[in-house]
Design a protein that fits this description.
Layout lengths: L1 H27 L5 H10 L7 H11 L6 H12 L14 H36 L4 H15 L2 H15 L18 H39 L2 H8 L4 H22 L2 H6 L2 H7 L4 H11 L2 H29 L7
Length: about 325
């Protein structure tokens, strides 16, 4: 197992190198340029340099005056030391900005992840156990609705009903006006209250695919020979489902959940934008629109590293859920 993990880590490092190189090349080709916008604004000041002079000066300042490969090597030599430079738009070190916004997205992603498992897995199993029943059809319809609903449309409906009509929640933001005057416990519940609608939005549009996935795999397992043998031996249906069938259903589910790791940290760009939550998704959206190459570069490479780590964790967990799987 140690050799397998070490080998996968080395492969992941090589993959991350090529992925980051491709990302850097794409970033250099972005049509929206913070440098150009800044140079245009500076050139309009009285007695200022010309636009072209400002562009040349800012390109040299930000390291954009060299080729893509040379520029990438400069960036990579600093990145391996966890020096990702400063954000052009936020005008502060990237890691400092990242630390200040990541916890909003992590809280949002973790709550959604837990709710997805609690809701989707039992409903998917229930639909498989009662195939072609009312339960199965209901779960299928709910899953299809969740898959089909655009997050911006569903979020708008929730805001209209629960914020405008009922007044239960604020339209946007993470805190109320009187947040600073509250006790620590009141501040916690104030933030949690503002997270309710975003969490519901992401959960509803995400559980559909997981429910369908669990149902399909559970049906495949329930039609296996060893399940028919277990039933023929007189085992209770509860033991057949929970002990024999569900354990084998876990293998493909682990793959899906392992790939969900980046979602805990990547943020929900559209949902955070709609509810004005200053998480990593919203921050990255602003940086993309402003052409902030250093921050967008860091964000995309961070997601790539999480994806590789999620795949590694999923592979390692295979042996934990199925003793037949051996790494060697």
């Amino acid at each position: 197992m140690k050799k397998f993990i070490l080998k996968r880590l080395l492969i992941s490092v090589v993959l991350l190198f090529f992925v980051s190189l491709i990302i850097y090349a794409i970033m250099r080709c972005m049509p929206t340029s913070f440098v150009e916008n800044q140079a245009r604004a500076l050139s309009t000041r009285p007695g200022a340099k010309s636009y072209q002079e400002w562009v040349a000066q800012l390109n040299a300042q930000y390291g954009l005056d060299v080729g893509v490969l040379q520029g990438y090597l400069r960036w990579a030599s600093k990145a391996v030391r966890l020096d990702f430079g400063d954000s052009w738009y936020w005008n502060q070190p990237i890691l400092e900005k990242f630390k200040s916004v990541i916890w909003y997205s992590f809280a949002l992603g973790l709550a959604t992840f837990i709710l997805e498992i609690i809701i989707a897995v039992p409903l998917g199993i229930a639909a498989a156990r009662k195939q072609y029943s009312l339960t199965d059809y209901t779960v299928t319809v709910v899953a299809l609705i969740g898959i089909s609903l655009p997050s911006f449309f569903f979020a708008t409906i929730l805001k209209y009903i629960f914020s405008i009509k009922l007044g239960w929640f604020d339209l946007s933001g993470t805190v109320s006006r009187m947040h600073q005057s509250m006790t620590p416990m009141q501040q916690f519940w104030d933030i949690a209250k503002h997270m309710v609608l975003p969490i519901i939005t992401i959960t509803v549009v995400s559980i559909g695919s997981l429910m369908r996935y669990v149902r399909a795999n559970m049906l495949e397992v329930l039609n296996s020979d060893y399940i028919r043998t277990a039933r023929a031996k007189g085992l209770s249906e509860k033991k057949v489902i929970n002990h024999h069938a569900f354990r084998n259903t876990l293998i493909p589910i682990v793959t899906l959940l392992g790939g969900s790791l980046p979602g805990l940290f990547s943020g929900a760009m559209i949902t955070e934008q709609l509810f004005q939550i200053p998480g990593i998704g919203y921050t990255s959206y602003v940086c993309v629109m402003q052409g902030d190459i250093p921050f967008v570069m860091f964000y995309l490479v961070f997601l790539a590293a999480l994806t590789l780590l999620g795949n590694l964790i999923a592979d390692v967990l295979y042996a934990a859920v199925d003793p037949r799987v051996r790494v060697g």
